[in-house]
Structure formats: structure tokens, C-alpha cells
Design brief:
Blueprint lengths: L9 E4 L2 E5 L10 E4 L2 H9 L6 H21 L7 H13 L6 H16 L5 H31 L5 E6 L14 H10 L3 E7 L6 H13 L3 E4 L4 H6 L5 E4 L3 E3 L4 E4 L2 H10 L4 E4 L5 E2 L16 H4 E2 L2 E2 L12 E4 L6 E4 L2 E4 L3 H9 L2
Parallel strand pairs: 4-5, 4-7, 5-6, 7-10, 8-11, 10-15
Antiparallel strand pairs: 1-2, 2-3, 8-9, 9-14, 12-13, 15-16
Helix pairs in contact: 1-2, 2-3, 2-4, 2-5, 4-5, 5-6
The structure holds 5-S-methyl-1-O-phosphono-5-thio-D-ribulose.
């Protein structure tokens, strides 16, 4: 896994937001330059930036970009406040499932309402600082998740992971992969089985890339192979990230996560979710209330520009599924490990110092 300053998921420089275009990884390293908030919206919708915490951070910087735009257009008498409201609305609509997006924009909007006396220039500068803070805190939280979670990794361990919950999906270091990274740094012999993660192959393209870069032994498998490995006794534990955790612990994550959790229960393999508190949505009673994003059919029928399926076939392409709390051995957060998660235990995390 990369160090955050080595290949940042995104960064702010010279009044612009730079986003690593994850659609091109692992073979091309290219940054998108965003000088309008609409470019940030597009980057999130089209998944140039993806992963719950990274989406939230991008949206926060999107607001800073919008403020710069409004400043530059001041002659045309665009009111910064109304421009920011419009930007916030559009960013909120960019992807529906990862709650970090809503969390980050709520925080930015709270900052705006507290600082309603500031000049447009001060607002523009202040939004950059607030977004930088969100980024920095996410990185710190991931390091804490790594420390808290590595305790659960045996000295020699074979870990299965799904999608990409690494440095690329966050402000750096990663959640699920942050734990792998911390365990490896402690001298544990960790081997990672990487689910390729159809249809967009975040496992094959991004997690595999991070593992190679970090020199952590890893093996890429098709998603269909996971159950067979469990049956063979070759998986000691499963660690995945999360896009939204309902108040009772039900967890939305990349499509396929639920199947892994069911198979893990059958084979008596511990199934862990790693996520910061910004991914927990205490307002939701259960996973039934989580909106599951459905994406374009082309993601299933095509591989890049190559058409795989026959014309006219029906496609169902939900991007996420929900794993019931009962299948999750523990949720690993920056504030500690919550075994057999439920409403009461998760609620306590928010009051813990
Ligand atoms: O559709 P994506 O690539 O944004 O989905 C990402 C995931 O499902 C991740 O596992 C999740 O966001 C956790 S990232 C730390």
C-alpha cells in the first residue's frame, strides 16, 4: 500500500483539487484536475474516485472548489451562499449508498452556518482548511483502525478481502487493508486472498495494486472461488470495509459481501467489518433502510469497451448488498472493536472519548 504522500487519492494545490483517476489503475497513473464542482460531481458519479471515505473527502473538497468558482465569478454577481447550496445539492446526489458523502457535506454545511459572518474570501479559505481537516482525520482514524484490528490477526494468517478498502478508498492507509498493513508491519505473516470484485474489478485492479506496491503476499481470485477456499480451510479470517452501517450494525458494502458473510458463517470463519465512525449512520434502524445504488447495465455486459454479453439481455446491477449484523463477528473502528454489534454498543461509540 502506498504512503499517503506518495500517491495520494486526492490533494489540493494552487486552488484546484487533484483526483487520482482510479478508472485507469493499475496501468496508468493520472490525476484529474478539478476547477469546477461539477467536475468533482462527475468524478464521484463515474467512480474516478470511489470508496466511502474517499467519496466523502472528495465532496468536502468539491465545496471548496465551488467557493473558488464563486469567488472568481464575483463580478457576475453570483452569490457565494446560493452557489454553495447548489453545489451541495448536486454533490449529495452523486452516489446514494456511502454515508460518508452525506456525513462530510453535513459537516461542511454546519461549518458554513456557524461561520455566516465571514467574507467570501474567508469562506473559500476556510472550506479548504475544513476539507483538509476531514482528510487528515480520516488518515489518523485509519491508522487507529489498523492498530485496533491487527490484534485480531493471528501471527500467521490468510485473510480474504473484497473490493478495495485500502489507501485508495480513503484518505490513506485504508480500513480493511489498513489492518492488513498494520499486522504486516508488526511482523505477522499475512497472506491476502483478493476477490477480483466484479463488475468493476476494484479487487483485481486496486487491491492487487496496493498489495504489490506494499509487497504484502497476495493472491488474486475470481469472486466465485472464495467459497471453495473456505471449504479447503485456507481462509483464517475475512475483513471487508463498509459503505454504510445502520444503527443496528447491518452493513452495506460492495455487492458480494453478503455471500461471503453467509459462507463464512457456514465454515465458522470470523467475518470482520472495518470502518470509521463516519460510515455509521445511527439514524437508520436497520439495513432495510439503506438505499442500494443500481448502476449502468454496461458495467455487466462490457469489460471496458469489449462487449461480452448478447445484445438485448436483461441486467440487474446493484453496486452493494447488506450483511445482517448477526453475521458480523465484530466491527473494527478507530474507537475500538465492537463484538456482536447492535444498536446499544454502536451508540456508545459516539459518546466514547
Ligand atoms: O463502488 P465503490 O468502489 O465505491 O465501493 C467501495 C466499497 O464497497 C468499499 O468496500 C467501501 O467503500 C469501503 S472503503 C474503505
Amino acid at each position: 500500500m502506498k504512503e499517503p504522500d506518495e500517491l495520494p487519492t486526492l490533494y489540493w494545490k494552487n486552488n484546484r483539487l487533484y483526483i487520482l483517476d482510479q478508472r485507469l489503475l493499475p496501468h496508468h497513473i493520472e490525476y484529474l484536475t478539478c476547477s469546477s464542482y461539477r467536475e468533482v460531481v462527475d468524478a464521484i458519479c463515474d467512480m474516478a474516485v470511489r470508496g466511502a471515505p474517499a467519496i466523502g473527502i472528495a465532496a468536502a473538497f468539491g465545496m471548496a472548489v465551488a467557493a473558488r468558482e464563486a469567488l472568481a465569478k464575483r463580478d457576475e454577481s453570483i452569490l457565494m451562499r446560493s452557489y454553495l447550496e447548489e453545489a451541495s445539492e448536486k454533490l449529495l446526489q452523486s452516489r446514494p449508498t456511502a454515508v460518508n458523502l452525506f456525513w462530510a457535506l453535513k459537516r461542511i454545511n454546519r461549518w458554513l452556518s456557524i461561520n455566516d459572518e465571514l467574507s467570501p474570501q474567508q469562506i473559500a479559505d476556510g472550506l479548504v482548511s475544513e476539507a483538509e481537516k476531514i482528510l487528515k482525520e480520516d488518515l489518523e482514524n485509519n491508522r487507529k483502525i489498523g492498530i485496533n484490528g491487527s490484534v485480531l490477526v493471528p501471527g500467521r494468517a490468510s485473510v480474504l478481502t473484497h473490493c478495495n478498502a485500502g489507501a485508495l478508498a480513503t484518505g490513506g492507509y485504508g480500513t480493511a487493508l489498513g489492518i492488513v498493513r498494520a499486522a504486516a508491519a508488526e511482523g505477522k505473516e499475512v497472506h491476502v486472498f483478493v476477490d477480483e470484485t466484479r463488475p468493476l474489478l476494484q479487487g483485481a485492479r486496486l487491491t492487487a495494486f496496493e498489495m504489490i506496491h506494499e509487497q504484502i503476499p497476495a493472491t488474486l481470485i475470481t469472486d466465485n472461488c472464495a467459497g471453495y477456499l473456505m471449504k479447503q480451510g485456507r481462509i483464517d479470517l475475512i475483513i471487508v470495509g463498509a459503505d454504510r452501517i445502520a444503527g443496528n450494525g447491518d452493513t452495506a458494502n460492495k455487492i458480494g459481501t453478503y455471500s461471503l458473510a453467509v459462507m463464512a458463517a457456514y465454515h465458522n470463519i470470523p467475518f470482520y467489518v472495518a470502518a470509521p465512525l463516519s460510515t455509521i449512520d445511527p439514524a437508520l434502524l436497520s439495513g432495510h433502510d439503506i438505499i442500494i445504488e443500481e448502476r449502468k447495465w454496461e458495467e455487466v455486459t462490457h469489460l471496458k469497451n469489449h462487449h461480452l454479453a448478447p445484445e438485448g439481455i436483461n441486467v440487474y446491477n446493484p453496486a452493494f448488498d447488506v450483511t445482517p449484523a448477526g453475521l458480523i463477528k465484530a466491527i473494527i473502528t478507530e474507537k475500538g472493536v465492537v463484538y456482536s454489534p447492535n444498536r446499544e454498543k454502536l451508540y456508545k461509540l459516539f459518546t466514547k472519548v
